[in-house]
Structures are given as structure tokens and as C-alpha cells.
Amino acid sequence: MKGKLAILAILFAVLVGVISFTRSDKPIEVQGSDSALASASSSHVEEVNDLKISLNEARVEDLADEEDMQLVIIDLTVENTSNEVKEFALYKFTLVDSEGYAHPHASNVETKGILGGQLHPDRKNRGEIAFKVPVDTSYELIYTDHLRTGQVSWEITIDS
């Protein structure tokens, strides 16, 4: 019985080692410092369920290892205008390309500031969120409050 448990423990350790070795949480390498600016064509400030979200700016950075993909990095400010603590999470953001495909944020990209967590009343938080997306000239940033059924969006155009 002890031999079977030892073999099971060894197999489990090997499985955990293989999974952790093959994970793709490696940082994304950005190619050079060439970055294009992007502009938002709709209002820069949108409000949903007492959260005021401002799109400050957006920029694009080329990826070193993938010519058909790029990083769109968006600088946002989130303000809680309510009298209670609000939860704020990056998974509520998607970036939709011109073909209609939605892309989640890329968590393995170094960005400025930290977005997410609890936001107390009358507090602001500023930070960047990155998306690894196919090369395109226009996108739509969408924030969806899944629990309170609200959604806001911004059109983003890449300046060549």
C-alpha cells in the first residue's frame, strides 16, 4: 500500500512539473520602441453603475515574435462616484477587432499602474490594460458589468 502511494505521489509531482513547465505566462517581448498612437472617436468618459471610466490614451506596440499580432495598451482612469465600495476587475474588459472577435486582456504584459480590486467611494484609480490582438486599424473597447447588467464602449482608431 505504501508503495502505491509513493508511486502516486511521484506521478502527481511529475504532472505538476510538466504543467508548470509548459505554461505560457512568459512576458511578451515588445519589438523596439516604435509605437503608434491611437485615438478614441467616442466620448472619452463613460459611466456605468456609479463607475466613471475615462479613456486617457491608447498606444500600439509591435510584437517581436509575431508580425500579424500587436499590443494595444489603453490608459484608463476609474472613479467610484457612489457611497459604497465597488469591485473592479480587468476581466470585464474586452477589445473587439473589426471582424467582431473579442479579445481578453493580456496579463503577462508590463503596464503602468494597477487596475482592479476594490475602489472606495470618491476614489480614482489610473492604470493601463494591454490586449494582444491581430493587426488592425480600429477596435472597440467594451466594459461589461456582468452582475448589474451595464455596458459601455469606446471606438479606438489606430493612427498610422
Automatic annotation (TrEMBL):
<feature type="domain" description="DUF4352">
    <location>
        <begin position="48"/>
        <end position="147"/>
    </location>
</feature>
<protein>
    <recommendedName>
        <fullName>DUF4352 domain-containing protein</fullName>
    </recommendedName>
</protein>
<dbReference type="InterPro" id="IPR029051">
    <property type="entry name" value="DUF4352"/>
</dbReference>
<keyword id="KW-0732">Signal</keyword>
<dbReference type="Pfam" id="PF11611">
    <property type="entry name" value="DUF4352"/>
</dbReference>
<dbReference type="InterPro" id="IPR029050">
    <property type="entry name" value="Immunoprotect_excell_Ig-like"/>
</dbReference>
